[in-house]
Amino acid sequence: MAENTTAPAQAAAEAAAAAQHQGQNRGPRGGQGHGGRSGGPRRDGRRPETAPEEKQFDERVLHIDRVARVVKGGRRFRFRALVVVGDRKNRVGIGIAKGADVTAAVSKATEVAKKHFITVLTDKNGTIHHEFEAKVGGARILIKPASAGTGLIAGGVVRTILEVAGVKNILSKSLGSTNKANTAYATIEALRSIVPADKWVTAGALKAAKNEKAKASPKAEVKKTEAKTAPKKAAAKKETK
Known about the structure:
This protein is an alpha+beta fold. It contains six helices and eight strands; from the N terminus they run H-E-E-E-H-E-E-E-E-H-E-H-H-H.
């Protein structure tokens, strides 16, 4: 009877000793040894945080519209997205595309915009070199240069395009239709048509070019004058005869 009572007590003592030994080997955070965790994957399932990547381009959605196409069984609805993409360093482009859902339409329009980049020519003050008015469909957009500190005097689609393009100071006015697609294309056309000051063609430049051509080819002018006077001399000889 004594042996039966001492056997369970001995087994319990051995189990307690083993648990104490295991607790000494385990670290304060439940890892292996005295160093805490062993460096394996996290038990809570969360991934380690990573720094977000900086986007090369600034992508803005200007307008999303639902369009319908009539088919045999009824109407089929799709989505049309107008997107502008720029790097804020004088490069900008716009694109329109359709898709079965909004995400597909926006992604397609973004790819179209990246394929149609233009370069906006600005001066040291971050403004354009001269004023220009562009017309696309019923939309008319007028843009003018502005002094430093003016900012973007524009609204709606025009302001978004100018921000993405990296223009700092400018004046603008919408004179025609408020259709967002035509307004966006008119703004891009106006920015594309800007000519830098060193390439302007003025009256003085034309006159100087003519003078340079005259100095470069004096022999050609002499030949022209001789060709003009030759018929007169022939006519004078006939009269004397």
